[in-house]
Amino acid sequence: MSLIQEARAREVTLARSAAAQPAAWSVTEQPWAWAVAALLLIMPVIANGFFLIEIFGTTLILGTIALSLMFLAGYGGMVSLMQLTIAGFAGYMVAVFGVSGNANISLGWPWWLATPMALVLAVLFGTLGGALAVRTEGIYTIMITLAIGAAFYYFTNQNWAIFNGHTGINTVATPHFLGVDWRMDIAFYYLTLAVAALCYFAVLYLSRAPFGLALQGVRDNPRRMAALGFNVNAHRIAAYAVAALVAGLAGVLQVWNYRQISPGSVAVERCIDILIVAVVGGITRPVGPYIGAFIFVILRTFALDFLVKVGLDGNRFRLLIGLGFLAIVFWSSDGVIGLYERWRRRGRPVETRPRPGGHGHG
């Protein structure tokens, strides 16, 4: 075995031990995990169409977009604010290549051709944006990805030939196959649940695969990984490509959900909402974005109605979201997941460890 191979083997071993530390527990090991999974599966039986799509369906879509951000930030140490932009780009491409009410813009491809094309272009878009972003670090990465999101928003708002300007593209066709209209409430909910579960377990698998472990090594010590022969920038760009695929899948579901897409869907404030969702839920574990998305959707839906009923501007629901964000971040740097872990540790007996060179007490 060469010295490089030995160094790689040692690095993977170290990465495995380091990766095990932030993920102190697995969701599947928690007593509530299987109950939540069962509840999601039987949700169409106990929830009406509004809760099924507007609450739980929207939660799964936003959570999947935030999951792509969590993958980059949690495992790669790269905070990207263009994940919603990538999702919106995929949605626009579905509308442009597929069938819509804007026949002068849409090409009229069937969904099984338009959707893969949209995902390929979304991955290419995210990869190119990532190749630009990896040349910077820290706040500069955030600003570059935010600039990409803002540029795409203004471009869609002003371009009429492809994106139909501020009007957007309406009446986007949704898939029909196996004799099922997959935009019907129950069918679309299960489709969204399946895509969210696929993305969740894919990210969970990648976090423990050699690529994910190497990515976490790049996050923790890029110079050491480069000295061991790893291509640091290649790993980071590949992470952007994976995250773009996850965000693109969610973007396709989003345009199918609303049957339309407009520049408002990729506005700058919505890009920042995805960061809030990821941070509130917890940026270190794949389940965190879905928890944060559920909290965000509940506040956005019911706080808006509450504010209108008491005679206040409904747009002030963002103030409530901001206050909740500050409160959670103040008490826990890892969002709701961190609060849950703190609660679990409370009341546990302190383990008695033997002193170095001494003997433990029975």
UniProtKB/TrEMBL annotation:
What kind of membrane protein is this, topologically? Multi-pass membrane protein
* Compartment annotation: Cell membrane
Q: Transmembrane ranges?
A: 32-52, 59-75, 81-99, 111-132, 138-156, 187-206, 237-259, 271-299, 319-340
Keyword RNA-binding listed? The answer is no
The alphabetical list of record keywords is:
Cell membrane, Membrane, Transmembrane, Transmembrane helix
* One GO term describing the cellular component: plasma membrane
Which InterPro entries does the entry mention? ABC_transp_permease, LivM-like
- List the CDD domains hit by this protein, alphabetically: TM_PBP1_LivM_like (cd06581)
Recorded GO molecular functions are: branched-chain amino acid transmembrane transporter activity
Main localization of the protein described in the UniProt heading: membrane
Name this polypeptide is given? Putative ABC transporter permease protein
